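User: Reviewer 2 asked us to show a designed sequence for the structure in our supplementary figure. I'm pasting the structure tokens here. Could you produce the per-position amino acids so we can include them in the response letter?
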């Protein structure tokens, strides 16, 4: 039993080591790697080598698939170039497998020691994060050595021999087993290295090992599709196309299964090298065969996963016209129209929140929280669209409007986040526990909510029309709302003093709720600031005018009694 646990621990350590390296490199160099991928998709071969290089660093074709799929989902790259990147990613992870198959056990202690010293000395710095990567690499090498040692006594056990005897070279069965194991481990790299180790110990025969390698590649494609299951069709096409690559390769390899072991054994290397070199050769052959077929595979993926109509997909931008980017004024107007859609979604969330408050409707609460994902996706789309407009080409008026749209989108996105958190608190602290607000407390919340809806509609009008009078009215509502929040908080404390049972049970939720409503109102009222500032009617400070003059006059003490008076600048 102890021996089996040692083997399982070694496999777990191998998976964990690959996870540490992948996450560490993405945290340190993720931004640069993403830029490399985005800039390298204009040509087929540059996309291929970009995928190869990036995956060689992060040691995970699945992680590369997620990055590329996110770009495709945002419309930054097409499906065909993304698939070329994925072919390179598969070759990249195969090269890493070959490198790690060498006996680097002497290097493992050095990497782990150096990594821990760097990590503990400065965890938050770049050196500390690099130390984390070194720890992961050392754990991978140490885990491979551990698996090799732990597997020796297992090989002699009769029960284990029976288990591995079931893998008799039936390539379809071997592929199925390895594909399932790859999905469970979340790493084809770890599975291929494990297969190579078992083959070197003669636990499994070469034909079985090659079938398992094919299954690991197929499982990697399945893993990518599972990782993007909830993404947009445009993003899922990348992982679907990559799975089709793997499926085509396996279909072509199965009829040759009887000859593959003869060809591989003819290389004249040890069992470990035979496995990893077959893994590399399989992916290189796929790249050579299918690199010029990426457009056709992309069309198949697009037919299997058609884009949802804009009317059916609320998170799909409708007004961000790429052809308008050559005309900055028109592009900013398109972005403003899309930003208004964010405001409309936020208004729906805000209106539905009161229904959840009064009816305890869990289904509605879940639907409203999901709408925050729509807000986030539209916000990201607007932000990326505006980022493509060269700021230096904008006239001053266009530059101000550009900033206004960005500010509005940021405020609406933050309002959506607050509403999502409020709904979560309502479920946790009110619905789950069967509590209710007092009648007076509910009336106060309804009053604040009604004012909030009115202010949001006024804010949307201010953003759309830029009317100075309405902007001033909106800012006045901010002061009124703040005063009401204080008054209602005090009245709630009065009910607590009167031992009102409902108020006592919901006290924390009530105070948090009215505070969150005030925060939402502050974000809404921020829409007025650019209009008021441009008109020159926005005060620079909330201090009394007898302390600070709003004009360019300076205030200074005179005389020895410390009295104050205004003094004109020299």
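Assistant: Here is a per-position design you can include in the supplement:
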């Amino acid at each position: 039993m102890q021996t089996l646990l040692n083997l399982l621990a070694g496999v777990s350590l191998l998976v964990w080591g690959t996870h540490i390296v992948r996450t560490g490199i993405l945290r340190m160099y993720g931004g640069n790697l993403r830029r490399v991928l985005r800039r390298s998709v204009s040509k087929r071969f540059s996309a291929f080598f970009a995928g190869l290089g990036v995956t060689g660093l992060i040691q995970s074709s699945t992680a590369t698939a997620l990055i590329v799929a996110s770009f495709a989902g945002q419309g930054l790259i097409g499906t065909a170039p993304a698939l070329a990147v994925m072919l390179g990613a598969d070759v990249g992870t195969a090269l890493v497998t070959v490198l790690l198959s060498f006996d680097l056990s002497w290097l493992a202690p050095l990497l782990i020691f150096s990594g821990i010293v760097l990590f503990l000395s400065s965890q938050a710095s770049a050196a500390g994060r690099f130390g984390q990567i070194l720890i992961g690499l050392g754990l991978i090498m140490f885990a491979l050595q551990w698996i090799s040692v732990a597997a020796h006594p297992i090989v002699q056990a009769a029960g284990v021999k029976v288990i591995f005897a079931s893998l008799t070279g039936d390539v379809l069965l071997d592929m199925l087993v390895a594909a399932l194991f790859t999905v469970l481990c979340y790493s084809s790299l770890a599975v291929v290295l494990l297969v190579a180790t078992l083959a070197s110990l003669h636990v499994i025969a070469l034909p079985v090992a090659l079938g398992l390698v094919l299954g690991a590649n197929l499982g990697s494609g399945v893993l990518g599709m599972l990782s993007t299951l909830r993404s947009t069709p445009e993003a899922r096409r990348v992982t679907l196309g990559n799975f089709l690559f793997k499926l085509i390769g396996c279909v072509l390899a199965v009829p040759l299964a009887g000859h593959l072991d003869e060809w591989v054994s003819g290389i004249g290397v040890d069992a470990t090298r035979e496995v990893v070199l077959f893994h590399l050769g399989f992916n290189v052959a796929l790249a050579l065969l299918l690199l010029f077929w990426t457009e056709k595979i992309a069309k198949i993926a697009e037919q299997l996963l058609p884009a949802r109509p804009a009317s059916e997909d609320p998170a799909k931008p409708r007004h961000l016209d790429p052809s308008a980017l050559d005309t900055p004024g028109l592009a900013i107007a398109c972005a403003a129209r899309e930003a208004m859609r964010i405001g409309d979604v936020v208004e729906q969330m805000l209106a539905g929140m009161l229904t959840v408050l009064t009816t305890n409707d869990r289904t509605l609460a879940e639907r409203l929280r999901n709408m925050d994902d729509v807000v986030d996706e539209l916000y990201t789309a607007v932000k990326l669209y505006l980022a493509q407009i060269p700021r230096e080409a904008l006239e001053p008026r266009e530059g101000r409007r550009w900033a206004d749209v960005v500010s509005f989108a940021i405020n609406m996105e933050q309002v959506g986040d607050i509403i999502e958190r409020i709904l979560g608190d309502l479920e946790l602290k009110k619905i789950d526990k069967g509590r209710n607000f007092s009648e007076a407390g509910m009336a106060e919340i309804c009053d604040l909510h009604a004012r909030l809806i009115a202010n949001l509609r006024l804010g949307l009008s201010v953003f759309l029309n830029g009317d100075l009078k309405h902007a001033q009215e909106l800012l006045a509502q901010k002061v009124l709302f703040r005063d009401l929040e204080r008054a209602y908080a005090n009245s709630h404390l009065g009910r607590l003093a009167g031992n009102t049972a409902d108020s006592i049970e919901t006290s924390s939720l009530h105070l948090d709720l009215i505070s969150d409503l005030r925060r939402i109102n502050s974000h809404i009222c921020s829409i007025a600031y650019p209009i008021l500032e441009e008109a020159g009617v926005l005060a620079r400070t909330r201090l009394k005018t007898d302390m600070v003059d709003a004009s360019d006059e300076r205030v200074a003490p005179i005389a020895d009694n410390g009295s104050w008076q205004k003094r004109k600048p020299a």
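For the response letter, you might also mention the following. The CA atoms of residues 115 and 132 lie 6 Å apart. The mean pLDDT is 80.
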